[in-house]
Amino acid sequence: MKAIQVSENVYWVGGIDWRLRNFHGYLTQRGSTYNAYLIIDEKITLIDTVKEHLYDEMIARISTVIDPKKIDYLVSNHVEMDHSGAIPKLKELLGEIKIFASPKGVDGLKMHFGGELDIEAKSTGDSLKIGKRTLHFINTPMVHWPDNMVTWSPEDSILFSNDAFGQHLATSERFDDEYYEDIILEEAKKYYANIVLPYDAQVKKALEAVKSLPISIIAPSHGVIWRKDVAGIIAKYTSWAANETKDRALILYDTMWGSTEIIGRTMMEVFESRGIQTEMINLQDTHMSDIMTDVIDSKYICIGSPTLNNGMMPSVSAFLTYIKGLAPKHRYGIAFGSYGWGGHGVNEVSEVMNHSKFKMLPPLKVKFVPSEGTISLIKQQFNESLDTIE
Q1: Is 80 among the catalytic positions?
Q2: Annotated catalytic, 24?
Q3: Which of 16, 50, 115, 254 has the smallest number of CB atoms closer than 10 Å to its CB?
Q4: What are the helix (H) ranges across 68-132?
Q5: Is 147 a catalytic residue?
Q6: Last residue of a domain, one of 241, 275, 309
């Protein structure tokens, strides 16, 4: 349990959660880290803490650099318990500790841990001199909670970026140039898709606030630290925040007797005939948090359901609830499905997608099993729908 040097007198002292597999309904198959950072200066400063159960690991890492009882300040960039959960134990160890947080963070920490904490509010433009360094604060509300802020150390060219630029990734390698680039980017994309996506307007404001800073290192609250490809991950966030998509289609569905799947495969043939990369995913087979990683850069989102008990399938309903909350923008939506005596399943899918601001194309509904003639008609209708947007 050693501290890892990030730059001179700045150390990573966080915890690695190797066993984490679910984070608020988001599958974290590769675990996660809760990153805390220790700055050694005239005032020894800790940036964030860890989830409560990893407190001992954080203290063990700090102890390889200094006596933890010498910590003077805690900067709490975010109230959520994976960042703040160790505060009560830290306060018990130190007796008293001066905490700095955003104005909303002050309120949130007191509601979480009681009003006896010594907390000072820091707004955008405020600073804190800790010796040779002066830390600067930028409030980034709703990226992804109202209390979020980031901390900038110009003397180190380090942005302590809180949840922005993070990944749920458990690894003993601490930097982006020490681990597999494709996995880091996949997890960064999944993190954005499942946590940050609804707040694109706020992300744009935050990016504008930090783009002018000479950043050499981005130190997020989860995953590896960016030092090789700082510009690259900022560019990714800029693209994701703009809801930029590729000419790519996702066909997501559940099926009872295979008819809805046949419609989906027919749509896939149409997409492929137009050179549009397409992926079919049965909602019974793939977790919705993994699907959202593909939604990020897909222009077409096709969602299919048969009719069950006069409505859509439960798996389809669950996914629609999830994607509605994450609110992807500027995407075309198509509802499709088979039905027997009532076609309300497809109607419900279409209604939810329309309410979620998808640009809807006409739904594709088939009674019972699609015949060869019906399949030809689906192709014709679907091609005509796509013609209207190309």
Answers
A1: yes
A2: yes
A3: 115
A4: 81-84, 87-94, 103-113
A5: no
A6: 241
